[in-house]
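Researcher: Go.
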Amino acid sequence: MHEAFQFLGNFWWLIFVFGGTIGGALKGVAVANERRIERRQERFRLKQETKVAIAQANAQHHADEETQRRELAKAIEQHDAVDARWFSYELDPVTLLDTPMMTDMREPLTADFHRAKYRADLLRPGNPETMIGNQQAQTEYREAVHTYSIAFEIAEAEAKRRRRSGFTLDEQERLVRAQRLLRLAMDDGATPQERQSAYRKAHKELDGLLVLPDRARAEIEHKIARAIGA
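Model: Structure:
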């Protein structure tokens, strides 16, 4: 230690020679340390921003999927609602005979409605989840359901307006008789024989005038067969 003080005492003037260099070196070290800290902070900031961006993207993706599910559910609900209205005709021939145009495929409006129904049924997803993410399929299905709904509204309104006016007086009387016979055929209080006879006569009255929907015929025939077998 004594030697060090002795050296400084003898060569004190070196401080003025190398003082600036030493000070600069110390300052450089401090700057380098600050830069390392800044780089470390920058890396941390970028990492946090990346995490936030990923979280936001995942949240947006989830929100988009939920929106798609809601829109798809609305389309399916609308599809079911129109189907239910159509089934009220298809499964009730007595009501159908009040508006026979609903099954008369010679009528353009009726044909349009049935074509629209076929397309909506064709595009309807068996499992809605399989359509999530497929925007084109969703759009096509929603548009098909909308077209089906509008076509049904137009056909039904025209059928109610016309009722049986498109038939001659004799044909209208046959429709009335067929309607009365079908009521009997569907009456659980009638005997099986009465129901079966009424159904055959109703068919005869409707021959050449109107073809009952397959589901309506199947429903009546099933009820009659069940009554006979009881």
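Model: The chain has two domains: 34-165, 167-230.
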